[in-house]
Amino acid sequence: MTFELKDSSLLKAQAFINGEWVNGDKGETFAVTNPATGEKLADVVSVGAVETTRAIDAADKALAGWQALAPKQRSEVLEEWHHLILANTEDLAIIMTAEQGKTLAESRGEIAYGASYLKWFAEEGKRVYGDIIPSPSDRRGVVIKQPIGVVAAITPWNFPNAMITRKAAPALAVGCAMVLKPAAETPLSALALAELAKRAGLPAGLLNVLPGLDAPAIGGEMTSNKTVKKVTFTGSTPVGKLLMKQCADTVKRTSMELGGNAPVIIFDDADLDLAVAGALAAKYRNSGQTCICANRLLVQEGIYDAFVEKFTAAVSHFRIGNGVDSETTHGPVITEKAANDIHAKVQQAVEEGAHVVIGGQPGTQGACFYQPTILTNVNDQMRVFREEIFGPVAPVFKFSSEEDAIRMANDTEFGLAAYVYTENMGRIWRVSESIDYGMVGVNETAISSEAIPFGGVKESGQGREGSKYGLDDYLETKYICIGGLNR
Fold this sequence. Notes:
Its EC number is 1.2.1.16. By secondary structure, the chain is α/β, with parallel strands linked by helices. It has two domains: 8-259 and 460-478, 3-Layer(aba) Sandwich (Aldehyde Dehydrogenase, Chain A, domain 1), CATH 3.40.605.10; 262-411 and 417-449, Aldehyde Dehydrogenase, Chain A, domain 2. Helix content is 37%, strand content 20%. Helix 2 packs antiparallel against helix 5 (162-174), helix 2 packs across helix 6 (187-199) and helix 3 (89-100) crosses helix 4.
């Protein structure tokens, strides 16, 4: 490996089950590689269904003691985990950049973002309130909320730290236990988090991390095991649908944060410089590999040419390369296959009449690189309109009226995030209420934080993560009727 850590013990390659670092029963491993260089970072243990069952059993046994603690005591463990993550930010960022490819600056930002969920839910976990329902008779209705139990989580490679803490923090805060399968591309970040959780005093069994290549075996056990009461997943819509079907047989609770096809709607009256800056951030963050990335830039015809000119000038200053290099603004995409898929979409759009303003080719830096790209002369029949690109490609579409923009924005089965740029207050309300998305940023694309309810509608998922609403998916509501109060 070409990187060094201040604390080398954060680099783990075993599974984490019941508080112990263990090998898989079959002795199998898989290589984790750096997408920027192709270098092998580690041979990580690969587990399957049997180890998953063992982890679920450990989580179930750990529940009673964890739930018996006062919320403040659980909070203190999460606070310490938060502290240790921040104290080890640089090492965690180096690990993330090595296995995921994003720049060190972006990795550091994700570490802070991920830690913020632990801080937030350490406090929110103390505020799981119920209700008293009055009655005209000698009865009272009491509503309490209790932890759902063992939670299975499956997380993606694009945010290998924050997508874990966003799920683990609320679950642990209210008294649940978690069995986690991280993405095979980025298990090292998850394993480092588990090491810090152990150091923070999280009791054995409450967080289990199961790296592995056999996703069907691990996921199949998670969805079929009756001890698991909830499955939470962040990833593609097809996989989310499959998991929901598998969970139906045991009627598990599910929360799904799935695919997106985010529009950025820029009206003639928008602050053009603000819109350009917002679109740049929304489109090219993490080299276009975020679920709320701008997928379609919808620009009103009166400012279309001016926007494309300014947008292109800004993109021309991007520098792609290894994320550890200070001059790099954008790293590789996650795999060579991902780069090839992106190029196929671009080529098809060009064949159908799209014009490449800048980019449009694989990068020369390596097999996982793709040039930041802008496409014009695109239409709503192309794949780049219909499908999530998940790469550094910005198709810029033209619209004429407000109604036209709303129609184009809603012309998708997805509904995660959307962005609107306008100075017209009436239009802000009309458009925000008319577009079918779970989150809308107005004159802003940096919309995510631990304090907001993150999630989508339609085929972008169900449930919300973060904010006070983020506890709901890990709680059951129980009604207790107390009678005989007049005796």
